[in-house]
Amino acid sequence: MKASRRGLFPALCGRVPLRPPGARPEPEFAALCIRCNRCITACPYKTLKPASWIYGERAGTPLVVPRKIPCYLCMACPPVCPTGALDPITDKRAVRMGLAVVDPESCFAHQGILCRTCVDECPLEGEAIYQDGELKPVVTEKCVGCGVCEKVCPVAEPAIVVRPRGDQ
To answer: 58: domain range?
Structure first.
């Protein structure tokens, strides 16, 4: 079977896009999303963007690029979805977009430099990420994957990145 050009690059990258709050599991989301852009229009922070052609058949579906603009968990997008690709969520703690992962090789705190930017800026205030006894960041299962930590990380290539829940 021959791979289409549109599907080749995402297959090589193997990355699942980071989806908006309330997104159903990726295969179901991709099947339900009609690319109406209502969620993108509803986002007051301009966080949501349509996926580019590199995502192949997923092009046009909404995604979040946290390093540019993270999700601020306003929950404006799920209620406007006409197909149910986004489940309505009202509690920001129930969101499960992804999970932040710390790279100890590039994280300042892991190198002995006092840095708590990701901990201080997390909207879940110590629930999703905290500092251990050695002042290193520890991500918990309560992380919702909003990407605020990735956005504020002072390292040029962020030492903390959000991995979509379907990409772990």
So the answer is: 5-80
